[in-house]
Each structure stands twice: as C-alpha cells, then as structure tokens.
Amino acid sequence: MRPWIVWATGLLAYIVAVFDRTTLGVSGLAAAERFSAGPTVLSMFVVLQVVVYACAQVPAGLLLDRYGSRVLIVSGATLMASGQLALAFTESLPAAVAARAVVGLGDAVTFISVLRLVPHWFAPRQIPVVTQLTGIVGQLGQVLSAVPFLAILSAAGWSVAYASAAAFGALSLVLILLIVKNTPDGSAATAEAMSVRETLTSVKTVWLRPGTRLGFFTHMGTQFSITIFALMWGLPYLTVAQGLSAGAAGALLSLSVATAIASGILIGVFTGRYPHRRSWIVLGIIGSNALVWTVVLSLSGPAPLWLLVVLVAVISVGGPGSMVGFDFARTFNTRATLGTAQGMVNMGGFLVSLILMQAMGMVMEAQGGISFDSFRQAWTLQYAVWALAVLGILVTRRKARRQLEKDDRFLLEDIKT
C-alpha cells in the first residue's frame, strides 16, 4: 500500500503542474483583455513558458539523476506556486511573462521526477501500467483548469482565480514534504557527481542510444497536437472559430481527459503484454490524428458537434500515446541515466508545441486576427511535424533493432520494437 501512497502524492504534484500549465489556455481571452495582448503577443506569453519547460528538460534530468525525485518535486511545487501567486496580482505584461516562465521551470522538473519514482517503488511488470497512469491521471489538472478554475475566474475575477491556483500548489507542497521518499528504504539512489566533461559525455551517450531518439520522435509525433489544443488554442478555436459556448468548450476539454484516461489504461496494458508492437501503436495514433484533422479542416464552415467530439477524443489519445516514448527510454537506458533520457524524450513534443503555438499565432495575426479562416490556415502547420516524426520513428526503430542484435545486455522480449 505504501508504494501507491507515495506515488499518489507525487502524482498530485503532477496534477498541479498540468493544472498550472493549462490555466492560461482557458483564461486566454481574459489574459488578452487584462494585458491588452493580441494573438501573437498572447501566444508568446505561453510559448516562453514552454520554451523554459523544453530547454530545462536535459538539465532537469541531470539534476534528477544527481539528487533524486523528492528534491526536484519539492523545488518544482515551490516554483509553480510562487509563479501563480505573482501572476495573480500583476497587471504588467513583462512581469506576467516572467511569472509564467517561473511556472514553466517548476513544471519542467515535476513530471520526469514523478516518473523516476515508479521503477523504485513498483515491480517491473507494473511499471508500464503505472507509467501510463501517471501521465493520464495527471491530466485531471486540465479538468480542474477547465471547470472549477474557469468558474472561479468568471465569478470572482483574475486575482482570486490565480491566487486559488497558488494555494492548491502550496497544499501539494506540504503533502510532498510529509510523504514522498525516493526509494522504499529512504536512500537517494542517485548517481555520483560528475565533472562538466563527464556530464557532456553522458548526455551525448544517452542521446546516441537509438531507443532514446525513438522515444523522442514518439513523444514529438503523438503529443504536440493535444498539447497545443489544451494549452493555448483549443478554447479560442472552439468558441470563436467553431461557435461553441464557453461551457460546451469546457465540456469538450473535460472529455479530452476522460478519453486520455480510458485509452491510456488500454495502451499501458497492451504495451506491457506486447512490447514488440509499441512503435506500431505510435504510428497508428499519429495517423489517426492526421486523418481526423484532415476531415475537420476540409470543411468550409464550422464542424458539427459530433465531429468536434470525435476530433477531441482522437487527438487526446496522443497524450497517453506519448508515454510510450518514456517506455522506450526506460528499456534502452540504465537507471543511473534514466532521468537524462526521460528529459530528452520529454523535449520532443514540447519543442514542436512551442514552435507551432508561436507560428499559429503569427499566421492568425497575418490573417487579421482570430477567426475561422485564420485558424483553418494555422492548424495545417501540423502536417510538417507529423511527417518529420514518422520519418524519425522509422529510422530510429531500424537502428534500435540493429542494436538488439549486438547488445545482449537487454532481454529481447522487453525491448524489441
């Protein structure tokens, strides 16, 4: 029972991280009014947070390998609560952007630190399912931002809503300090300190492992569409371009989480039983995402509600699908470098997400602002990323198979792709 309690407490920290990450997405229109920001400025507002998140992944992984999960989860919770509190009371755009950068830095260290707990607290056969559960249950944070946070924002205003978010983070911080341990015996289970040269060599070694790069491209191709949708452009797209009410749009974002939970459990069970089929699952998810967006974007007017439901449900599978990338990292790397490998994988989806969020804002700005036609143009940028990700998966999968033939340190049934 103790492993589940420790994991659940760490999971709460990740729920808070997702909640903090997505609050600006549901309050985008309010932020535009509060800070007098157009689509390009507003997208930069979010993009900086994701830039910080993505750029911090490898350093966060190195720190995780050095200091362990507890220190980094505590640090992340402190940073996020501080950033949200600052955001609650500032009316200055530069100060607000800086606050979101602080939130992004705290967010950056949280997820991979919670994932690092799983191999230390659970049996090997449980790891794929618990890893999936970590990713999908953490998305409850998106529900919290889409429903209660949005309700507080509408009823009590910006400052009360963001101060409440900071208080939620403070609560999770207290629980982490009381409950979370790195390992069952309380030891740090971390690597020895390395010189700068040794650190750079370790980073290069981890990246050159084909399983790490396979995880990177897996995360890239599956995660970015739902991330952009939930983090920035989903609510404006549904309300302004598709004509839905704020309540209906919030319900669709909640549906996204429910879909992710259900599909994530299935993906976790399937990848645990059939690890040699993992890459095919990933390719299927990418293909389904591209197909449903093609159908929606081919329409000359707003889509019917049932099609929007299908769109949200299908792209939401990309969230748990991206978790397969971390499973590749786990099976192709040692525990001593697992944090670094997971940080690299986690960069995949977020790097392209931040690029596309900014690019979409620029496209819409050039088209005269947020509208049906400008969104239709902006969403087509996704196809270039899907093509790159599929190519990367096919190439690195072949190299990973060759490595299996040469390296007898890994069990074939555990890592064959």
Automatic annotation (TrEMBL):
What GO terms are given for molecular function? transmembrane transporter activity
Which PROSITE patterns does the record match to this protein?
A: MFS (PS50850)
Gene Ontology CC annotations of this record: plasma membrane
Q: Which UniProt keywords apply?
A: Cell membrane, Membrane, Transmembrane, Transmembrane helix
Tell me if S-adenosyl-L-methionine is a UniProt keyword of this record. Answer: no
Where in the numbering of this chain does the Major facilitator superfamily (MFS) profile domain appear?
Answer: 6-401
What is this entry's stated membrane topology? Multi-pass membrane protein
Transmembrane parts of this sequence: 41-64, 71-89, 95-118, 130-153, 159-180, 214-235, 247-268, 280-299, 305-326, 338-359, 379-396
Alphabetized Pfam families for the sequence: MFS_1
> Is rRNA-binding given among the entry's keywords?
no
Q: Where in the cell is it found?
A: Cell membrane
Q: Where is the signal peptide?
A: none
* Classification via InterPro entries: MFS, MFS_dom, MFS_Efflux_Transporters, MFS_trans_sf
Q: Which SUPFAM superfamilies match?
A: MFS general substrate transporter
The name under which this protein is listed is MFS family transporter [Rhodococcus jostii RHA1]
State the organism named in the record: Mycolicibacterium parafortuitum (Mycobacterium parafortuitum)
